[in-house]
Amino acid sequence: MMIKKIGVVGAGQMGNGIAHVCALAGFNVALIDIKQDQLDAALTVMGHNLDRQVARQKISEREKAETLARVQPSMSLEALADCDLVIEAAVEDEQVKRKIFQQICPVLRKDALVATNTSSISVTRLAASTDRPERFMGMHFMNPVPMMQLVELIRGIATEESTFREIRELVVKLGKTPANAEDFPAFIVNRILLPMINEAIYTLYEGVGSVESIDTAMRLGANHPMGPLQLADFIGLDTCLSVMQVLYEGLADSKYRPCPLLVKYVEAGWLGRKTNRGFYDYRGPAPVPTR
Ligand SMILES: NC(=O)c1ccc[n+]([C@@H]2O[C@H](COP(=O)([O-])OP(=O)(O)OC[C@H]3O[C@@H](n4cnc5c(N)ncnc54)[C@H](O)[C@@H]3O)[C@@H](O)[C@H]2O)c1
Question: pTM of the prediction?
C-alpha cells in the first residue's frame, strides 16, 4: 500500500509537529482535535516553525505555503475516512486513547494502518482495543518533532511484518531515523530519560539543590543540552507523571515511584511550558524558577 494521506489525532505539541513533518514530506494530512483552539494554535505554531525553516534556508516560501495547504484541520473524525494511516497523538491517558481507537476504527478504511505516539503505554494492549491489531504499532516521535531525528518503532504482539515495513519506510521518507524497541513500559528513550528527570525532581524535593543549581549542574557537569527540570517543563509534567506511573505499575519496582512534588505540580495545573508554569514561570520575558 502506498501511504498518501495521514490522519493525526490530537493537535497538541506532538500532533502539530507530526503533522508538520508529514505535510512537509508531501503527504496530505487530516489533523483532528476535540478543541478548535488547539487546532488553531497548532496551525499558528506550524506556521512559525516553517518560517524558521525558511529563515534558515532549509525550505522555500513556496514549500512553506504548499506544506500548510496540505494540512486539513478538523473536529470531525469523518476527515479520517480516506486516510491510509492514522497516527494517534492525544493525551497520555490509556482510557482516552482506547476510546479514540474505538471511535475511529469504524470510520477508517479496512486496510488503513493505525499507529500510536504513546510514550509509555503497552502497544499490545492499545492494539487490542482496535479492530486491526495486525495493522497497528507504536511510532514514537521525539519532541520537538521537526528537529529531532529519532522515531522509536514498537511492534505489538500481533503487528504484521508488512505493517512494520510500511511504517519503517515512512519514517525514512520523513527524513527520520528509526530505532526498534520491544513493547516494554516506556520503551527505550523514556525508560532511561524519565527516571533521570524524576530523580532530579526528588533532588529538588529533598532540598539537595534549587531548580537553578540542578539544571546548571546537569548542563555543565554532564554536558546535557538542557537541565532535567527544564526538559521536564518542555515535555509536559502531566506526560512525565503518566510515564512514571506506567513504569511504576508496569515494572512493579519502587525505584520508579513518581516524586510527590511532580504529583503536586500536576495537581496545581502547572504542567510546564504548555501552561506557562512548571519548574519555571514562563509568563515574563525570561523563565524564572518557581522554587
Ligand atoms: N511531550 C513530549 O515530549 C512527548 C514526546 C513523545 C511522545 N509524546 C506523546 O504524545 C502524546 C501527546 O502528547 P503532547 O505532549 O502533544 O500532549 P498535549 O497535551 O500537548 O496535546 C494533547 C492533545 O490531545 C487532544 N485530545 C485530548 N483528547 C482527545 C480526543 N479524544 N480526540 C482528539 N484529540 C484529543 C488535546 O485537546 C490536546 O490538543 C502523548 O501520548 C505523549 O505521551 C509526548
Answer: 0.93
210 classed as catalytic: no
Is the domain of 45 the same as that of 170?
Answer: yes
Examine the domain organization and report whether 155 and 253 are in the same domain. no
What is the model's pLDDT at position 42?
A: 98
C-alpha 8 – ligand 1 centre gap (Å) = 11
Residues 67 and 19 grouped into a single domain: yes
Report which ligand 1 atom has the smallest distance to the Cα of 11: 39
Strands 136-141 and 150-155: antiparallel
98 and 142 part of one domain: yes
Residue 28 annotated to the active site: no
Q: Are 56 and 149 in contact (CB under 8 A)?
A: no
Please say if the pLDDT value at position 1 is more than 80: no
189-205 and 260-267 helices, crossing angle to 10° = 90
Domain boundary at 156, 181, 206, which? 181
Tens digit of pLDDT for each residue in 204-230?
999 999 999 999 999 999 999 999 999
> For ligand 1, which residues put their CB under 6 angstroms from it?
9-15, 32-35, 38, 89-92, 96, 100, 117-119, 140-143, 235-236, 239, 274
Domain region containing 119: 5-181
